Amino acid sequence: MKTLLLIALASLTCSPANAQNSEISIHLYNLSGIPAGTLDRATREVCRIFAQQDVTINWTAGPPEAEEVHTTDQHGAAAFRDASVRPFLVVRVSRGLASKAPNGALGVSLPHSQFGISATIFQDRIEDLCHRTGWDFALLLGHVIAHEIGHVMLASNAHSPIGIMRARWGHDEFDLAAMGHLGFNPRQGAEIRAYASRVASRLKTEAESALVPR
Fold first, then answer.
1. Percent of the chain residues topping a pLDDT of 70
2. What is the CA radius of gyration of the chain?
3. Would you say the C-alpha torsion 31, 33, 36, 42 has a positive or negative sign?
4. Is the C or the N end of the chain the one with fewer CB within 10 Å?
């Protein structure tokens, strides 16, 4: 099952209809064995949410022993982070990592991390919430991943009064999610596209530098 999951996610790219879309690469680590079909539904939900902002998500699954999923570097301040945007993000989904997180938090993000983990998703808390509410796990997981990625792209841990970046979700938010209407507001969308543009510029510069004779 794990081998099949790696193959499926490594080849998954979700593109919006707009040919002028930007791209974001995410290394996804399934550290607790979420079934392949469930994780596929969740990642496709993330793709749909970002496609609304004309951003393509390129997924790559990684092995649990990879160094980047167990380390992080937050020395860069916001200004440094914006000037040195990462070429890809690292997201891990696991159990038993929420002991130091605020009560009720379904994940945490590290917007200014320059290496390693960008966001951690608390699978056990999502499962517990779904058991209590009857909500769909894959749907909620996808929206939580999108929320935490949103924090990284927006370079902020701040929340919004409404929408996917709201701090706490209730039945109203889940109903919107089920209808495909829980997403980023126009200002957030503009900032996300700007982030994707900075990533593209960095990758282009690195590619051009690699062609220069040494």
1. 84
2. 17
3. negative
4. C
Contacts of 147 (CB under 8 A, 6+ apart): 106, 107, 164, 165
Residue type for position 207: A
CATH number for 21: 3.40.390
Residues 6+ apart with CB under 8 A from 127: 137
What distance, in Å, lies between the first and last C-alpha atoms of the chain?
A: 45
Strands 13-14 and 55-61: antiparallel
Note whether 92 and 148 are within 8 A (CB): no
Whether 78 contacts 153, CB under 8 Å: no
Q: Which domain holds residue 145?
A: 2-211
Give the C-alpha separation, 89 to 113, whole Å.
9
Instruction: Convert the pLDDT of each residue in 35-75 to its tens digit.
Output: 999 999 999 999 999 999 999 999 999 999 999 999 987 66
Share of the chain above pLDDT 90, in %: 70
Question: Which of 2-11, 116-125, 152-161 has the lowest average pLDDT?
Answer: 2-11
